[in-house]
Every structure is written in C-alpha cells, then in structure tokens.
Amino acid sequence: MKPRRPAFRPLPWVLLTLLATGVYTRPALADPAKASALRVEAAQYEHGDGVDRDPEKAVQLYCEASRLGDVVAQYNLGWMYANGRGIARDDATAAWFFSMAAKQGDPLAERMLRQVGDPLAQAPACLFDTDGHDIVARAIPEHRKVMDLVRKLAPEYGVYPRLAMAIIRAESNFNPAAVSPKNAQGLMQLIPETAERFNVRKPFDPEQNIRGGLSYLRWLLAYFKGDVELVAAAYNAGEGAVNRYAGIPPYPETQGYVRRIREIFKREDHPFDPAITEPSPNLPKINKRRLM
What mean pLDDT is predicted for residues 48-64? Predict the structure, then answer.
C-alpha cells in the first residue's frame, strides 16, 4: 500500500504552473475556496463520510478541484489511481496527478511520482477546460465577442461556458442573425415557443438569446440530472423526444448533433441544480435501457 496523505491537511495556496499537452488549460485565476469545497466533498464520497461511498463521484470532484489547482486533491486523486482505490489501478493517470502536485512543490507527490513512472501523454479527460479558453484562443474576432459574452453570462446560470459554446457552434456557428427552416432564431437557435418560455423578447439580441439558451440548458441539466448526452439530444430534438425514445432519439440529425457536442465538451456529466425542476420520470427507464 502506497502512503496516503490525510484528506484535509492544510497547505499554502500556490499558483499552478503546468505545461500540459493539447487541450488542458488552467484558468488564469484559480478559485481556492471553490477548489477546497470540491476536495472536501470528494473526500466524503471517497470514504463514505456522511454519504454513500461513491469512488467515481469522488474522482469527478477531485478532478475538478485538481483543475482549479488544489494540491491535496491532485495528490489524493493520484493516490486513488495508484492504489486502485475503488477504481481501476492506472499508474500513468496517477503519475499525471502526482506530477500536478509535484509541480507545486509537494514533496510527497514527488516521491510518489518516482514510484509510478511516466504520466499519460495527454491530460485526463476530466481536466478538459470547462471555461473554453482554448476555443477562444483559436477563434476569429467576430466569434470571440460572442464567446466572451458566454463566459460572462454562463456562470450566472450554473452552466460551463464550454458547453454553451459547443451548443452555439452546433446551432448557429456564432451567427446572431441565423434562422433555421423551423424558425429557430439567433445564436442558440431558440424556436418561438422556447423563447417565450424563457422570456426572450428579442431573439436576435445576442445577450437575450444567450440568456434564453442558458436558461433552457440549466433546466435540461436539472431535468436529466447532468447527463450531457441527454441534454444535448433534448436541446436538439426536445425533451419529449428523449423521454419518448428512452434515450437519444434515432434521428440522424440528433445523433450527429450529440456527437458534435461531445467532441467539444468531452465530459459525460455536468453539475446541476436540483431545485430548478424535478428530474425526468423516464430517467430510470433510460438508465436501465443503457445497461441492456
């Protein structure tokens, strides 16, 4: 058994400097309070402290805290992978997270890194930038204006900017004047019924349209309990179609749409606010069908 760091050992905050390959980009300013809260919650799920033990949930929360720069979360996640703590042992992934902590000067992580070997060639999927910095960096100036507005507004709705950018790219390719054959309008292609549902009076106004689309995404995330594939399918085909087919509808357009969203967002789930709406009553049926 490899040495375990106490889950709540206090450490000074040090800004993370990580030379990552490919898509992983850390926010310019980390949020220590948020990272610490995520790490504490992760430890609860890892150890079953007041909640049912859920190693996969612990990994998700530790990874988000690691992305924000929490060195204890980085070490703890490396330890879980190095020891197969409720998950499959994976020394290369463990090495990646130990490397993150070691780059912040953590001596125990440095020692563990020597034991587990070389890290992955690319960042683990859970570390993909949810704020969309890499998308913005590659964007043309006209698109960047929209992306900056998304990054400003999305946190108000509890939506990762990267997911909203993926939706906008698939819907309108950042064209605020776009109109579909079904009369979906603006950046997030709101049909008149959806615009009315979320109080959008000027669908071609970029801010109003984005706010309406974010409101709908927030509702869908709660309705489908953060399942990104179902949310994307519902945004394209409607939540009724997802319920009716107990999953992604068999429409080529919708199936291609979901793939495009996943190619950009690259995460299976997304945090959600359960107070927004009751979950779909069809979720148990959908989940059961997935297991068949």
Answer: 92
